[in-house]
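> forwarded from #structure-qc
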């Protein structure tokens, strides 16, 4: 055993570079893991057999799809390589895919060698040193060693040659030993890149080091490029330090989401903002998951200069729009792209990205297929970026394949759970029984009347409730949440997988689970007539829903009924039903209404969305009907007690863990949009105030139109779009007043009630258990920086899940209208743009645009007929499929009444 002092640069809290030193104990007996070795004591289940492969980082990252589909098995990967990819897995889909492969090591027989603690891999290139050690180790083997190093690095090839180590480029290896079909995964070859002449409007990038210096001097500006979904030629960046938007008219080979350096064009090429009528309240646009609360990008602070201050004063004073050109890509967006092939060109499903050049040996096999590709390069001589095939997803138009495209485009994991993850489940499987020892550690609530109320067909039941009358006009109310943390232990394979997925994603026709189905639909799901483990919050409250006491504890429950919302509502409304369960639900409903009124009195908002529900044909499985989602009082009943539980838990965990709690905050709304809505409502004769959430809530209550129940809901939907996104935060990063949840008018709020489908709730369960001294807090959760990064990832995944659900709804709406040509429905005008109006069909929650002549902010003319905003009109709905891109069109019908 040898002791070595290793030093490593790290950033401190002030972002200064510090050298951190630590002692490392080096070992000479880390095993080789080769089957039949007479020297090593094998410590892993993996037993390597010939041929054995070493792969460098570039091979792993750039050719991971080829590796997965090839005969490259028995792979030795360095622990330092694993650390490299783990560090990048949150920002890079490529790195995440490498980690997925490593963690599924039984399939490819992957052995992780602890090079950081090996005396054989110090003071040099560890891959070369490891290959050398394996070569010298052959004397202990019963068979001749066949070791192969794959790298694109010229120096490593030379070193390997000198040490008599077999070494190949990935291209040479595939051509010699693999199926020729795998050549399509290699991308472009050198013969393709002969013409090196730049094309118009494309010029070489400035070196990154020079860019960084010019950014600091204020000569260049840094930001993430955002490209318009409907017009790829329109792009912009937002410079945070100056709250400035710069439009880009020379994109110079950028992709949406790239972090770029931009040089301003001369001022005579800028534009003055045109004052135009635009009254519209669109839903938030999708991003690529990079807009984190705490970005991991290296953001370079601009030194404030008199020149810059003068420049931005001029921009504001003259209402100018600065224009710029991209001079360097500082960081490419690292994601994969789904789409189809058309005339040997890859066409992405996402309209913000350009068409790609794809080299493939059999283009005819890709026709009518949805495929996934990986960006390779965008040379200066090409008007399109280059890509290589990642995988063929399946036939275009197939509902299941289209669903997969939606999931992949929104970075949702669709692979099966690994062997290591499944190994974390109880070995008894669905025959698992709660032990008597475990029951003794918990509150035994199996004799209490507990039930669940969920949507029809819900299988992953997170929550149940109970209520019983006490003496002195008091009530005991309990919320019992699935105890997922009992099965998902910290830092296990299943915990890491849940932390990666973060959330269950719901599409119209399916869901993609955060956890294996044995947990989500069985052992954790609080189904009726079965003993289940729960984490309970129990209040004592009076008949006005004022809380007198609260306690938290782990419990065992036995639900007596798994109800759906309509079923529970019918029980409440049936005067002949006076069963104990019905009386309990009526008490819950009475208290829920009091709780809701208390929230509204505090300023909580009651908003709305255009969520729709689909019905399906039993034979074709196509949508047969689509309607706005119907809500019952029982929806509100469940919501109120879940909100109360989340608030109570938030207060408890913050009191015990003030710097590492995971809370959910909601900042004030977008005031500019609310101001526009206020002006519009005032023009219509309504009082509309938004100085506080309570005034906004009262204003919304007063906006009514005779014989039009949808109008109030529409204004609430528009108000929802003026809201900022609620975000998970680590309390170390936010001052106490900023933890406020605006929409709920709650000082503190968190997510506790859905641990089957949200990883945030699993973290909160662990915090709550530690706060009442049931369990110790995992050491990993005491790291503030790590908790901040987890919250960033939770926000990204939550956002992507929401967008995926919306995309699925859009796709099924398209399918519904596809089989109903010239469908005529009533629509309401919801907004005014420069030359068109936005409309919504209330029945379907469907939105679109119609060309119009704009008179003023209230009045328009459509085909010679005068209308006002919020008028009802008749529209004809049709759909179009162009290059596999689905579009819904609305046409004004002149016979409007």
């Amino acid at each position: 055993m040898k002791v070595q002092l290793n030093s490593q640069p790290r950033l401190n809290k002030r972002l200064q570079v510090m050298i951190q030193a630590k002692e490392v104990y080096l070992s000479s007996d880390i095993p080789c893991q080769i089957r039949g070795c007479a020297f090593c004591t094998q410590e892993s289940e993996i037993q390597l057999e010939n041929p054995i492969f070493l792969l460098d980082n570039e091979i792993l990252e750039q050719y991971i799809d080829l590796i997965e589909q090839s005969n490259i098995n028995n792979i030795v990967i360095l622990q330092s390589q694993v650390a490299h990819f783990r560090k990048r897995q949150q920002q890079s889909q490529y790195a995440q895919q490498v980690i997925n492969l490593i963690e599924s090591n039984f399939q490819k027989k992957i052995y992780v060698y602890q090079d950081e603690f090996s005396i054989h891999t110090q003071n040099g290139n560890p891959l070369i040193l490891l290959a050398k050690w394996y070569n010298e180790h052959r004397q202990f083997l019963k068979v001749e060693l066949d070791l192969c190093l794959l790298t694109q690095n010229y120096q490593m090839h030379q070193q390997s040659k000198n040490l008599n180590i077999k070494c190949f480029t990935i291209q040479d290896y595939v051509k010699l030993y693999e199926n020729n079909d795998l050549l399509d995964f290699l991308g472009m070859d050198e013969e393709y890149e002969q013409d090196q002449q730049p094309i118009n409007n494309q010029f070489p990038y400035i070196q990154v080091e020079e860019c960084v210096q010019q950014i600091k001097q204020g000569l260049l500006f840094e930001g993430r490029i955002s490209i318009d979904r409907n017009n790829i030629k329109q792009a912009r960046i937002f410079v945070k330090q100056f709250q400035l938007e710069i439009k880009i008219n020379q994109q110079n080979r950028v992709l949406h989401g790239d972090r770029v350096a931009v040089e301003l064009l001369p001022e005579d090429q800028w534009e003055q903002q045109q004052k135009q009528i635009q009254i519209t309240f669109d839903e938030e646009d999708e991003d690529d998951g990079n807009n984190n609360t705490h970005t991991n990008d290296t953001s370079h602070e601009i030194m404030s200069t008199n020149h810059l201050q003068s420049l931005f004063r001029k921009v504001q004073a003259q209402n100018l729009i600065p224009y710029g050109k991209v001079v360097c890509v500082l960081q490419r967006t690292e994601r994969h792209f789904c789409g189809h092939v058309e005339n040997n060109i890859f066409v992405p499903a996402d309209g913000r990205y350009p068409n790609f050049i794809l080299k493939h040996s059999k283009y005819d096999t890709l026709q009518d297929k949805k495929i996934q590709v990986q960006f390779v390069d965008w040379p200066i001589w090409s008007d399109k970026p280059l890509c290589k095939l990642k995988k063929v997803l399946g036939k275009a138009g197939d509902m299941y394949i289209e669903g997969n495209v939606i999931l992949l485009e929104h970075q949702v994991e669709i692979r099966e759970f690994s062997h290591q993850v499944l190994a974390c489940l109880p070995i008894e499987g669905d025959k698992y029984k709660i032990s008597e020892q475990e029951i003794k550690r918990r509150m035994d609530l199996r004799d209490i009347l507990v039930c669940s109320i969920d949507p029809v067909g819900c299988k992953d039941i997170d929550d149940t409730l109970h209520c019983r009358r006490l003496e002195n006009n008091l009530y005991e109310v309990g919320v019992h949440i699935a105890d997922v943390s009992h099965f998902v232990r910290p830092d296990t394979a299943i915990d890491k997988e849940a932390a990666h997925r973060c959330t269950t994603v719901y599409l119209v026709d399916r869901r993609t689970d955060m956890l294996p189905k044995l947990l989500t639909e069985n052992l954790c799901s609080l189904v009726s007539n079965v003993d289940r483990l729960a984490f309970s919050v129990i209040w004592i409250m009076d008949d006005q829903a004022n809380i007198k006491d609260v306690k938290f504890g782990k419990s065992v429950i036995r639900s007596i009924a798994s109800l759906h919302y309509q079923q529970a509502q019918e029980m409440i409304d049936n005067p002949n039903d006076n069963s104990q369960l019905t009386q309990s639900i009526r008490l819950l409903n009475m208290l829920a209404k009091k709780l809701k009124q208390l929230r509204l009195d505090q300023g909580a908002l009651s908003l709305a969305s255009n969520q729709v529900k689909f019905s399906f044909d039993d034979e074709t499985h196509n949508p047969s009907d689509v309607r706005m989602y119907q809500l019952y009082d029982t929806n509100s009943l469940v919501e109120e007690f879940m909100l109360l539980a989340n608030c109570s838990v938030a207060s408890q965990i913050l009191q015990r863990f003030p710097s590492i709690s995971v809370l959910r905050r909601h900042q004030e709304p977008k005031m500019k949009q609310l101001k526009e809505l206020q002006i519009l409502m005032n023009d219509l004769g309504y009082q509309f105030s938004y100085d506080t959430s309570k005034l906004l809530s009262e204003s919304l209550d007063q906006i009514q139109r005779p014989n039009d129940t949808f109008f109030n809901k529409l204004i609430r939907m528009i108000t929802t779009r003026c809201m900022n996104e609620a975000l998970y935060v680590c309390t170390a990063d936010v001052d106490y007043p900023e933890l406020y949840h605006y929409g709920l008018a709650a000082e503190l709020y968190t997510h506790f009630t859905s641990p089957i489908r949200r990883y945030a709730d699993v973290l909160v369960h662990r915090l709550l258990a530690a706060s009442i001294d049931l369990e110790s807090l995992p050491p990993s959760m005491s790291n503030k920086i790590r908790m901040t990064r987890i919250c960033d990832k939770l926000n990204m995944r939550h956002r992507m899940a929401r967008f995926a659900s919306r995309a699925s709804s859009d796709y099924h709406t398209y399918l519904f209208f596809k089989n109903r040509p010239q469908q005529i429905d009533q629509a309401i005008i919801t907004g005014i743009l420069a030359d068109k109006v936005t409309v919504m069909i209330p029945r379907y929650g469907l939105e679109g645009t119609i060309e119009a002549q704009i008179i003023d902010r209230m009045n328009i003319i459509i085909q010679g007929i005068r209308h006002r905003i919020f008028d009802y009109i008749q529209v004809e709905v049709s759909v179009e499929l162009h290059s596999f891109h689905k579009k819904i069109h609305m046409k004004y019908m002149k016979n409007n009444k």
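QC bot note: DSSP finds 23 helices and 41 strands in the chain. Residues 208-331 form a domain with the OB fold (Dihydrolipoamide Acetyltransferase, E2P) fold (CATH 2.40.50.690).
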